[in-house]
Amino acid sequence: MDSERAHRQLRLIAETVQTAEALGAEVWLRGGWAMDFFLGTVSRDHEDIDWFAWSDDAPALAGALLLHGWRRVPGPPPDGQLDLVKGGLESSLTLVDRDGASRVVVAGGPWAGTPWPEGMLDGESGRIAGVRCAIVSPRVQIEIKRMMPVWDPSRPRRPKDAEDIARLEAALQAREP
User: Fold this and answer.
1) Alpha-carbon distance 44 to 164, whole Å?
2) How far does Cα 27 stand from its chain's mean position?
3) 70 vs 38: CA distance, rounded Å
4) In percent, how much of the chain has pLDDT > 90?
């Protein structure tokens, strides 16, 4: 890791994992940090830390993180999401639920009840510099990065998404026998 920002974010990831574990809550890294934990190295600078967490765990998790010096990001909270900041670094927990068929679904907002891709939370743990964390399945990370502009046309694919897809595909291919 080269950047001080990455070091600080990694400490916040470890703190969030420890806090969740102490509560018996589950969290999964998603986005760029999930990719890096799968790869085992920091590949680029990250604007924030993105997570998935169960909506039922959100009140206790938010309360515990606030006790550890986190603050809510100013402004109205988006439905189905918890945005926090500590030391000028943002962390966003996207909340998920299960539907009647036990599928992982969007917990709130205009897409509440919409299923996320199958197997999304079945991924392995990843690790960087001694910090271990559950991550979104790498195959599902690719699917989300490919499909987000289709699911939500207001969120076009960014160059970093194409780069992340290529990195994940190469790493998955290298792991196949």
Assistant:
1) 10
2) 8
3) 26
4) 79
Per-domain boundaries in the chain: 4-137
Name residue 61's amino acid: L
Strands (E), 55-135: 71-72, 81-86, 89-98, 104-106, 125-128, 131-134
Q: Which residues, at least 6 apart from 159, have a Cβ–Cβ distance to it below 8 Å?
A: none
The alpha helices in 40-77, defined as continuous H runs, are 58-67
User: How many Cα atoms sit within 13 Å of 33 on the Cβ side?
Assistant: 30
With contact defined as beta carbons under 8 Å apart, do 61 and 101 qualify?
A: no
Model pTM score: 0.92
CA dihedral sign, ordered 120, 89, 16, 9: positive
Q: State in words which class domain 4-137 has.
A: alpha beta
Where does residue 82 rank: exposed (0-12), middle (13-18), buried (19+ CB within 10 A)? Answer: buried
Alpha-helical runs (H) found in 25-67: 31-39, 58-67
Contact call for residues 16 and 91 (beta carbons, < 8 A): yes
Pairing of the two strands 81-86 and 71-72: antiparallel
Task: Convert the pLDDT of each residue in 111-134 to its tens digit.
Answer: 899 999 999 999 789 999 999 999
